[in-house]
Each structure stands twice: as structure tokens, then as C-alpha cells.
Design a protein that fits this description.
single chain, binds flavin-adenine dinucleotide
Length: about 290
């Protein structure tokens, strides 16, 4: 696919990467950023005339920030999968999701920035990051921070607007007077497959057993990864038990807008949304019991 390329740039700074992209744009022709290339190469877009490689930028890091994390955009799936701090954070859902993305070879190449910027509705990092209220930092004409729930605009469309995704910010989880737990679930035909449905949940329960905070996020069931806000509202204020879980899972399935494709029918996806949300919330409940 790269036989039509006339330039392949390997900048060492974000400013140079943006400058190169701007000057190439002025010269005409279509180009793109490339990190691991695991989405870009498969897409095989022969209209591309130049690429700006991001892997030499100083964006491969996972750092503690406040009670949360700052993750550089070129950190690989394998970096996240094996990071001891992330594995111990929010029931380890970010590491767990990263660890389900493709094969070890794909995880060694594919990056968190590429996963989000590619904006596949099924990308595995979106649900856990949505459940953690993450934001992305975009460098472009100005540097801006975009909450992840406003980042995805449609299938392969984002709020990047030609900018460079430089960092993912995961804030400190809500302070729990009682107990808190998270869960990630993924349904695919094989372990290395793209999700038919994926889901992440986070729940905080007060000392009285009532839910005070809830997040439910789903992927592969609409044009963009989504937060099931009405299902979250079903949980908040009531006892976090099997009945609440069943009601929230049912509501979450109603919030999906799936399509039928080679992987699954829309009806199957909607039903599996209910099943995966119920499983995720049940795992949260079990984890709360275990971590008492
Ligand atoms: C066999 C196979 C299995 C896979 N399995 C899974 C899976 O199970 N789950 C899953 O979620 N994904 C899966 N993927 C998809 C892919 O591996 C991931 O989405 C990966 O994280 C993409 O990252 P990358 O660095 O390779 O992106 P690239 O291919 O380099 O880039 C993808 C897109 O994002 C843009 N881009 C990249 N980085 C930035 C940035 N920092 N700022 C702005 N734009 C940027 C590029 O221009 C391009 O349009 C699979 C892919 C393959 C080939």
C-alpha cells in the first residue's frame, strides 16, 4: 500500500510533527500520522502520499498524575497490559482491555493513541477509559483537552480535526466512603478478534449499600463507543444488588444502536450488551465483597 508514498517523516518533537504535517498539507496530497501502523496498514489507503511517524516522539510513558494517570499517546497496548501501577488501578480494567487487543505482536506495535484516533466503534480501550472519565489532550493550532465522551464523532470520525493526540488523562476515581469496583468484559469469536460487543462498568457504593456513582460504557453497539447514561441513572440512589443490576443491564441494551455486519446481527449485539453489562456489574458486586 505504501508504493504511492513520496515522503515518510520521522520527527523527534511534537512541534516538528505538526509543522511537517502543515507544510505537507500546503504542498497538497493526503497524508496521515502513523504510530504502530496496525490499523493504518490494514486499511491500505493508496491515496496517502506522505506519513508522519510518531514513534520517535517522547510520548511513550505512563505516569502517576494526582490520584490518576497520564498516558503518552504512543504507549503500546503491551505497555498498558504489563504496567504494574495500571494493573492495580480501578480493578485493572485498562490493562485488562489492552491485554485483549489482538495478538502479542499487535499489542507490541499498536498504541493507545492509534486505538482512539482510529475511532473504530469496537476499539477495546474506549469503554474502560469512558468508565474512568478519561480525557485526551490534542496538540494542533492550540493545545486542548477533550473529554473522551465528546471525542468520538462517528465511525472513524473524531474531534481531532487534524490535530495530534498526545496524551490520555485518567483522573483520580471518585473518593469512595464505602466501596468501589470496576469491570471490563469483551465478547469476540476468538481471543484475538475484534469485539462483537465490549463493555466496562464502574460503581461506587456508600456504607448503606446504595450506589452513589456509576459508569456503564459499551463498544461495537453504535457508531461510536458510548456511555449508557440512563442505565447509570437506574443504579444511582438504589441498593446495588441483583435486581438493580438486571434493571440497569436491560436499560443499557435499550440505549444501544447496533448494526448487523459480518461479525453479528444487531439483535445479537443488543442482547449481548445486556448480558455483558450484567456480567460487568455482577463482577463489580463480587469484587466489592472480596475487597471488603
Ligand atoms: C490482527 C489485528 C487484530 C486487532 N485486534 C484488535 C482488538 O482486539 N482490539 C482493538 O481495539 N483493536 C484491535 N486491532 C486494531 C489496532 O491494533 C488497534 O486499534 C491499535 O491500537 C492501533 O494503534 P496503532 O498505533 O497501530 O495505530 P495506527 O495504525 O498507527 O494509526 C491508526 C489511525 O490513528 C491515527 N493516529 C495514530 N496515532 C495518532 C495520534 N497520536 N494522534 C492522531 N492520530 C493518530 C493514524 O493516522 C491512523 O489514522 C487489531 C488490528 C489487527 C491488525
Amino acid at each position: 500500500m505504501f508504493d504511492q508514498l513520496r515522503a515518510f517523516h520521522r520527527p523527534a518533537t511534537v512541534a516538528t510533527a505538526l509543522r511537517l504535517l502543515a507544510s505537507e498539507r500546503r504542498a497538497g496530497g493526503r497524508g496521515a500520522f502513523v504510530a504502530g501502523g496496525t490499523d493504518l496498514v490494514v486499511q491500505g489507503d493508496r491515496s496517502l502520499r506522505y506519513l508522519v511517524d510518531l514513534t520517535r516522539l517522547p510520548l511513550r510513558y505512563v505516569k502517576r498524575r494526582g490520584g490518576g494517570w497520564a498516558v503518552g499517546a504512543t504507549s503500546t497496548m503491551a505497555d498498558l497490559e504489563h504496567h504494574a501501577g495500571l494493573r492495580a488501578f480501578a480493578s485493572g480494567i485498562v490493562s485488562e482491555a489492552a491485554g485483549t487487543a489482538g495478538s502479542p505482536q499487535i499489542r507490541n506495535m499498536g498504541t493507545i493513541g492509534g486505538n482512539l484516533a482510529n475511532a473504530s466503534p469496537a476499539c477495546d480501550l474506549a469503554p474502560p477509559l469512558l468508565a474512568l472519565d478519561a480525557s485526551v489532550v490534542v496538540a494542533g493550532r492550540a493545545r486542548r483537552t477533550v473529554p473522551l465522551d465528546r471525542f468520538f464523532k462517528g465511525v472513524r470520525r473524531t474531534a481531532l480535526d487534524g490535530g495530534l493526540l498526545v496524551e490520555i488523562v485518567i483522573p483520580a476515581p471518585p473518593r469512595a466512603a464505602g466501596r468501589a469496583a470496576w469491570s471490563f468484559q469483551k465478547l469476540g469469536r476468538l481471543q484475538s478478534d475484534i469485539a462483537v460487543v465490549n463493555a466496562a462498568t464502574g460503581v461506587v457504593v456508600g456504607r448503606d449499600g446504595r450506589c452513589t456513582w456509576a459508569r456503564i460504557a459499551l463498544g461495537a453497539v453504535a457508531a461510536t463507543p458510548l456511555r449508557a447514561r440512563r442505565a447509570e441513572a437506574v443504579l444511582v440512589g438504589r441498593a446495588f444488588d441483583a435486581a438493580a443490576i438486571a434493571a440497569a443491564a436491560e436499560r443499557a441494551a435499550q440505549e444501544t444502536r447496533p448494526v448487523s455486519d459480518v461479525r453479528a446481527s444487531a439483535d445479537y449485539r443488543r442482547e449481548m450488551s445486556r448480558v455483558l453489562v450484567a456480567r460487568a456489574l455482577t463482577e463489580c458486586l463480587e469484587r466489592m465483597g472480596r475487597d471488603r
